[in-house]
Amino acid sequence: MIKFLAKGLFRDRSRSLFPVLVITLTVTLVIFSIGFMQGTMNSLLLDTAVILTGHEKVVTRAYSEESQLMPNDLALMDVDQLIEDLEQEYPDFFWTPRITFAGLLDVPDQNGETKAQGPVIAFGIDLFSSESRQVEIWELERLLVSGNLPGNNNDALISSKMADQLNIGIGENVTFIGSTMDNAFTTYNFKVSGTFNLRKGQTDKQMMLVDLSGARLALDMDNAASAIFGFTHSLYYDDETAVALRTKYNRINSDSLDIFSPFMLALRDGNQMGTMVDVSDAMMAIMGGIFLVIVMIVLWNMGLMNGLRRYGEIGLRLAMGESKGQVYRSMISEAIIIGLAGTVVGTGIGIGLTYYVQENGIDYTKGIEALSNSSMVMPNIFYAQVTPDLFYIGFLPGVLATVLGTMLAGLAIYRREMSQLFKELET
Amino acid sequence: MEKDTVIRIKGLLKQFPIGGQFFTALKNVDLDLNEGEFTGLVGPSGSGKTTLLNIIGGLDSPTEGQVSVLGQALNDTSHAERARLRRKHMGFIFQSYNLLPVYTVFENVELPLILNKVDKNERRSMVAQAVESVGLRDKMDSRPNMLSGGECQRTAIARAIVHQPALVLADEPTANLDAENSHHIMKILSNLNKELSTSFIFATHDEKIMAYLRRIIHLGDGEITKDEIIDNPKAHD
Q: Domain limits at A221?
């Protein structure tokens, strides 16, 4: 009988091919939409993480109290050892030192006299280490407007907005005027190797990027750093994991009585970032949930309609002596097979599509640049994100909803008189 | 029950709920049908013939009264037992053929044998024999949409008799056919009745069928109004 029913199923495209296509399409849509929403939310968080917070950030307790002042006199010491420990203890993250400093940028003319001057916020990031991913996560090659990436420790990248404002050209020397980590006055010459545009509104208006080694020389911070940033290898921020890691690290390594002991902050611990993460999670849950419910209703309805359409056939099979249980079970088995086939194919296509957009992104540069005067920080390329839940979430609408619809339609076998089912055959 | 009694009905009442009321489809029906009979339930629309056929086939339950089919009291049997009775001992022929459109003639006729778990080789020869008996040997691999109305009904007949049932129930089997095909179908059924000693019960108001019947039970307003034995049917060979 199974062979007989399978033969019918494959021949009747309205029972096999069409439902499989609908389920495939729906599951693909569910997976891609959820992957894209997760990726977009992550893109919003990633920008903040790259520039300001990391997924995790290790600072001294004292630095965390006054971080808005960029107090490098409270910086971490013996950073190489700290990073080695972090890498061993928490290999799911990669760890990188960061020096954040601010001061004045002086632009001299040919005679060495000040041509222009302005405030600068600078980041010393690890540009030169072979294992460093800073160029990648800052997307510097793509964001470079002119010139080249730094090649020496006194090379600097400055934002194109600041270059225009201070009239700085590529190859020119600029002088950073500020204070060292020992609070001594310092001046340090950087050579502008290139300009960049983060394309995130006014975020980079006064920004300068230098290699960590240059910043250390400028600020006399040998083997020290303002912070150590940690990022997941996939660059996907998982709040639950981040918070658990932060709590564990602080319990083991941080001494509340020692203001120079290391102290870890998760992304959510930054200024209002907790609210943003919660809002992002809530939006994801609401949007994803609504979408999932809608497609479940669609597929449930399809299962229901497929069942209703077959009342005549059911009546015939019952008349010929199949038991109600046999007919009901065969309908459900059929729905499971169809649901599984559509879901597996849909999941494959959905994850493939999500992975493609994860790797290549969808570029909204022109639209975001039109908002260049806005103070809102927006990513200009939106990436999807393949997460573990995408591998099973499609089974909810694809299999569960389809089978539930069929089960409900099939209940008529038990509820209606057989002669009534039979009449459907005649109409 | 006598040995050759196929159906015995005593005091049958069938009512359907309509709104808050009950519609009486059959009442005071007493009936015995014997093995090998070629009987018609005749009457106008709404007289209760299809309802009676459904009750005999175990597709509907009586409101009151006793119904025994092939020695089994349907009132006391479960759905599964009634399903088994239909599967083993009954065949059905419908007005609109009700062939499964995605299967070939061979496969449609094969279905009752699959349900009865008949061995594959035996199935093949039984299907071939049944299809041969209705003259469709050259259409074995055709699907219903490639057949004429008469050919579809002949396929349905082959499906109804392939497992050699004791009883065949036919509801308006010629209603969708022209006169020539109707006579052809009735001749086939009449011959099968003789060859297989299978009992046939028709629900009909078609004069062409009546000409072949050897017993006509007239129904009116849900009651048997006349039970007529025809010794020499007009169209009988």
A: 95-226
Alpha-carbon distance B101 to A423, whole Å?
18
Residue B178 above 50 pLDDT?
A: yes
- Confirm whether A237 is domain-assigned: no
HSE at residue B17, side-chain half, CA atoms within 13 A, is: 3
Picking from B225, B215, B143, B154, the residue whose alpha carbon sits closest to that of residue B185 is B154
Does residue A376 have a pLDDT over 80? no
Judged by a CB distance cut-off of 8 A, whether residue B40 touches chain A is no
The domain total for chain A is 2
d(CA A172, CA B167): 105
CB contact, 8 Å: B221 with chain A? no
Residues A260 and A61 sit within 8 Å (Cβ to Cβ): yes
Q: Report the distance separating Cα A15 and Cα A20, nearest Å.
A: 9
- Residue A419 to residue B54, Cβ atoms within 8 A: yes
- Which one of A11, A323, A426 has the shortest CB-CB distance to B102? A11
Mean pLDDT over the full length of chain A: 88
Residues of A in contact with B67 (CB under 8 A): none
- Model confidence over A334-373: pLDDT tens digits? 889 999 999 999 999 999 999 999 888 887 766 666 655 5
Chain B positions in Cβ-Cβ contact with residue A321 (cut-off 8 Å): 83-88, 90, 112, 115-116
Q: Are residues A214 and A319 in the same domain?
A: no
Confidence of residue A8 (pLDDT cuts 50, 70, 90): confident
- With bands split at pLDDT 50, 70 and 90, how would you rate the model's confidence at A422? low
Summarize pLDDT for B76-118 with one digit per residue, the tens.
888 888 889 999 999 999 888 889 889 999 999 999 999 999 9
Return the DSSP state at A76: B
Q: Which residue of A has its CA nearest to B159?
A: A320
For B26-87, give the DSSP string.
Answer: EEEEEEEEETT-EEEEE-STTSSHHHHHHHHTTSS--SEEEEEETTEEGGG--HHHHHHHHH
Q: Which of A1, A8, A325 sits opposite B100 (nearest CB)?
A: A8
pLDDT for A377 beyond 60: no
| Secondary structure (3-state) at B91 | strand
Q: Are residue A294 and residue A397 in the same domain, yes or no?
A: yes
Interface probe, candidates A13, A318, A419, A425, chain B, greatest B C-beta count within 10 A: A419
CA separation for the pair A138, A122 (Å, rounded): 14
| CATH number assigned to the domain covering B5-229 | 3.40.50.300
What average pLDDT does this structure show over A251-269? 92
Structure tokens at B167: 């009883």
- Asked whether residue A283 is assigned to any structural domain, the reply reads yes
Residue-wise DSSP of A280-322: HHHHHHHHHHHHHHHHHHHHHHHHHHHHHHTHHHHHHHHHTT-
Total H helices, total E strands in chain A? 18, 12
